[in-house]
Amino acid sequence: MSRRSTDNTKLAGSLLLAHPGLTDPNFRRSVVLLSAHSEDGAMGVILNRPMGKTLGEISGEFALGALADVPVYQGGPVSEKQLILSAWQASEEEGAFRLYFGIDPQKAVELKDSEPGLELRAFLGYAGWSGGQLEGELSQNAWLVVPVYGALGHGATDESLWRSILSRISPEMRLLVEAPDDPELN
User: Fold this and answer.
1) Nearest to 96 by CA among 148, 132, 134, 27
2) Domain tally for the chain?
3) 60 within domain boundaries
4) In 3D, which of 80, 57, 75, 76 has the Cα closest to residue 67?
């Protein structure tokens, strides 16, 4: 299920799962949807950091509109006040995953009204890597790369999403996921 490829053409549209040993508080136990990846860098949003608020609650611009109930997530440590609207849908018949990233509010409303089963989310901030930085982290096994299709759509929106996906990768990962943070306290 996971791959360690650093082929730039294959990473955009993938999920990055933080290795259980990654302790950086910005990315600990995170699931990042990678929207762009090139030799210049990479960009994505963290999918499993819900803020417990909706667009209508954080911005008067959306309070009475069609997007008022869209959940807001902490997208990452870069530009934390920047709002990014994204939507996606997995198609079982086609075996495909459609991603709409960085869409404007009007497009988000159109998609919400016309695409049943579409997952629509708002993110404040994003995760970003400079050229070569993500490749370096991948070579240090800080991240596991997982195809997005089949990994999402299980209803989990918090740390349980990270646990669920990692547990399916291998028995070894399942053990690491279930291990206590501090084994001495076990």
Assistant:
1) 148
2) 1
3) no
4) 57
Query: Does 114 map to a domain?
Result: no
Instruction: Give dist(CA 155, CA 134) in Å, integer.
Output: 28
- Domain contains 111: no
Please state, in angstroms and rounded to a whole number, the distance separating the CA atoms of residues 20 and 30.
Answer: 10
Share of the chain above pLDDT 90, in %: 59
E strands, the chain, are: 14-18, 31-38, 41-46, 50-54, 71-74, 78-91, 96-103, 119-130, 143-147
Encoded tokens for 56: 């209508």
Question: What are the φ and ψ backbone dihedral angles of 136, each rounded to 5 degrees?
Answer: -65, -40
pTM above 0.70, yes or no: yes
When pLDDT is averaged across residues 26-48 and rounded to a whole number, the result is: 95
**Residue with more model confidence, 136 or 98:** 136
Within-domain flag for 167: yes
The CATH number covering residue 179 comes to 3.40.1740.10
Residue 170 domain boundaries: 8-55+71-86+122-185
